Amino acid sequence: MTTDAKQPNPEFAKKVVEAGGKTLNLCFQCGTCTGSCPSGRQTAFRTRKLVRRAQLGLKDDIMGSDDLWLCTTCFTCYERCPRGVEIVDIIMALRNMSVREGHMAPQHKKIAQLVSKSGHLVNLRDEDKAFRKKLGLRETPPTVLEKPAGLEQVKKICQITGFDKLVAGD
Amino acid sequence: MAEKLGFFLGCIMPMRYPGIESATREVLKELGVELADLEGASCCPAPGVMRSFDQDTWLAIGARNLAIAQEMGVDILTICNGCYDTLFETAHKLNNDLEALARINKILKQVGIEYKGKTQVRHFVEYLANEIDIDAIKSKVKENGDKKMKAAVFYGCHFLKPSTIKKIDNPERPRIFDDIVEALGVESIEYKDKGSCCGAGGGVRARSPDVALKMTKENLVNMQDAGADFIVDCCPFCHLQFDVGQAELKEFQIPVLHLMQLMAMKFGLDKDKLGLEAHRTPVKL
């Protein structure tokens, strides 16, 4: 007899636990998370399903999927889970693993590169400087934007962790 | 109170809504809170995106910001839920988990920094409620207007949650922010699904802006149906999502104020410092 059923991959599930999803196996699939999810109200994203896939280690259904990136990390499911499953932590672990496998949206790469190169995720335009001055603020905020040595530290941290290479490219 | 606090600027406020920054500086001066700039700080870095990409980079850059406060001998004050989440969670983890602290310090050591695991991080709404007290705020209110305004108070997600570590108020039925708004002589209205997410977080605004806007719209419909005169938020990212989101949706005109801007208005402080010209949804109140 043959079957099309997907085969569980306990090794992958173990990796999720090690990457920060330590409460993964506490989930008993009640669905409180799905019922509480503001993103799932607008989309086909189902939190419970994502957690189940992670428990079963269905790696190919998770890595590179759109669902993984529809969570706004609002923590509503995390607060309401009757089993204390730290769902956002599981999603973060899965996203980190997915990024390391090369799945990253171009818009996310752009933001990540902005942080690793400028130390901020929003740029300072001339019009922003002029507006700050008009409000009586320092034209350039007293952050890494004004302290090149501080920016070098942030850039170096991104080199040491490999973040700059992780998020390189288009 | 009375001790000096390190004012964490983040990214969206100083670059896109500097009026929130000038209002914060004016309001806190009025309340006798002294702020020091955290010279050389960076992005917190943002929890929804940066934590999603690589948690150790997120922790290390966050710890660098905590170490700047440590060197200045101050605790951190933030007016943004995102910055609060990153800095509070990073401090919570590193201040209580010696193994994680050692792992992150191994990275920081290479840039000449050691985080000692002591910095405390405060969200301004919690700070106002717990350190200033409501009566002191009430006593500063000068502008009451002709009729009582109705505000849709918007908590956002990362001010109170995860409540297991933040322990500020009940995240399902909070009062802490509403009480401050009411102390200003404004009515905090009930509206359907209050406490929901604006839609912007977790990298959703960047990656799936249409999904983010659907969540924003649901909030706006509920606020409008309840008769809100304006929205008051405690986070520049929620602020941006509601302000720019309404310009994108083209169906609503509900003014959006950060609590610091509302307080500056109610305290009768210099109107030129509110920076309302930056708002894409006009503020006519």
Topology (elements, then pairings):
The complex is a heterodimer of chains A (170) and B (285).
Chain A (H helix, E strand, L loop, with lengths): L9 H9 L13 H5 L10 H10 L2 H4 L13 H5 L6 H14 L5 H13 L7 H9 L13 H13 L2 H4 L4
Chain B lengths: L4 E4 L3 H5 L1 H13 L4 E3 L9 H7 L1 H18 L2 E4 L2 H16 L1 H12 L11 E3 H9 L1 H5 L11 E5 L8 H4 L9 H8 L3 E2 L15 H4 L1 H17 L4 E4 L2 H14 L6 E3 H8 L19
Parallel strand pairs in B: 1-2, 1-3, 3-4, 5-6, 5-7, 7-8
Helix pairs in contact in B: 2-14, 3-4, 4-5, 4-6, 5-6, 7-10, 12-13
Summarize the structure in words:
Chain A is 51% helix and 0% strand. By secondary structure, chain A is mostly helical. Chain A folds into 2 domains: 10-100, Alpha-helical ferredoxin (Fumarate Reductase Iron-sulfur Protein, Chain B, domain 2, Orthogonal Bundle); 106-166, no CATH class. Chain A starts with 9 loop residues before the first helix and ends with a helix. In chain B, the strands form 2 sheets. Chain B has a 4-stranded parallel beta sheet, sandwiched between helices. A 4-stranded parallel beta sheet of chain B has the order 6-5-7-8, with helices on both faces. Chain B is globular and about 60 Å long. With 285 residues, chain B is an alpha/beta fold. In chain B, strand 7, helix 13 and strand 8 form a beta-alpha-beta unit. The longest helix of chain B has 18 residues, at 55-72. Chain B folds into 2 domains: 5-125, Glutathione S-transferase Yfyf (Class Pi), Chain A, domain 2, CATH 1.20.1050.140; 141-278, 3-Layer(aba) Sandwich (Rossmann fold), CATH 3.40.50.
